[in-house]
Amino acid sequence: MRRIQTGRLIALLIMVAGISTAGVSLHGLIERTYALGGPDELDVPYVPTPESVVEKMLDMAAVTGSDLVYDLGCGDGRIVIAAAKERGARGVGIDLDPERIRESKENAREARVTDRVMFVRQDLYNTDLRDATVVTLYLLPSVNLEIRPKLFKELKPGTRVVSHDFDMGEWTADQIAEVDGSMVYFWVMPANVSGTWEWTMPGSAGKERFVLKLEQEFQNARGTLTSGSSEMPVHDVRISGDQVSFTVDQAAGDEAVSVRYEGRVNGDTIQGVIHNPDGQSEGKGWTARRDPSTVVPIDNSDEIPL
Ligand SMILES: C[S@@+](CC[C@H](N)C(=O)[O-])C[C@H]1O[C@@H](n2cnc3c(N)ncnc32)[C@H](O)[C@@H]1O
């Protein structure tokens, strides 16, 4: 389900309202969009991100020489070119408009970064994003929502996503900034920790079996940890990239002590350490394994018929 016509129209009007205040002529914008074969061809009209906002986007995503930055709808290529020239990153710019791709290649030549960037005329919806470590967007609210399931399907946990002016609906941003009247939204792709995890650890009465059940909503999760006959809620769950941590108030004799579990998620395994109430590592490790059939996709909104 790719296009939501009413949503797109409303979003386009919102964008146009913002753009007209930024000094770009509405008439020129619509003329350019229609000249390319009508609004059905491009999902978003071409409007460049101001340089100050480009800098902020790259700062928030903490782009370095080890990154591969994808700009979906790259316009004149300014975001990936700045990432390559100023931060030493590699970049891929995707745009459906051949004129934008020509411009981007010319700009990359002028900036002497052709060895680190490439520009491809392609529909962003058909672009394989699995290699990206950073994804930049200046699209529309409805287009952000339409590509959100694709981001969750293809991007690795820890990949940074940064969007000029438009958010991702109920996937709230990890950071928000304002630069020269523009909003910048930043997210880190969370690992999917949903489902049922199990592990054993030596306890006072021999080997103890633990069962952790987690339900996830984007970067937030809640659930329970069961050991023997006691089921305890987990709280302060934090998921950042492939790192997960949570606290459980576990019984210790007549008292309850807060124990913090920290771990790294790798597919259906979490491996990490346990911290006691003083924040010190008890030196105890935990390795949990998940029943793969219990995983729930984080965002399957593209499967909901509209
Ligand atoms: C608002 S501009 C952003 C340009 C650039 N990312 C920047 O921030 O300066 C959106 C760009 O998306 C391109 N575009 C629109 N629909 C697209 C699609 N389905 N696939 C790829 N590019 C698309 C347009 O040609 C335009 O250059």
TrEMBL record:
Entry's Gene Ontology BP terms: methylation
Family annotation (Pfam families): Methyltransf_25
Known EC number: 2.1.1.164
Disordered as annotated region, ranges: 274-306
Domain Methyltransferase stretches: 69-155
Keyword annotations from UniProtKB, A to Z: Methyltransferase, S-adenosyl-L-methionine, Transferase
GO molecular function per UniProt: demethylrebeccamycin--D-glucose O-methyltransferase activity; protein-lysine N-methyltransferase activity
S-adenosyl-L-methionine is among the record's keywords: yes
Protein name: Demethylrebeccamycin-D-glucose O-methyltransferase
The species this protein was found in: anaerobic digester metagenome
GN (gene name): rebM
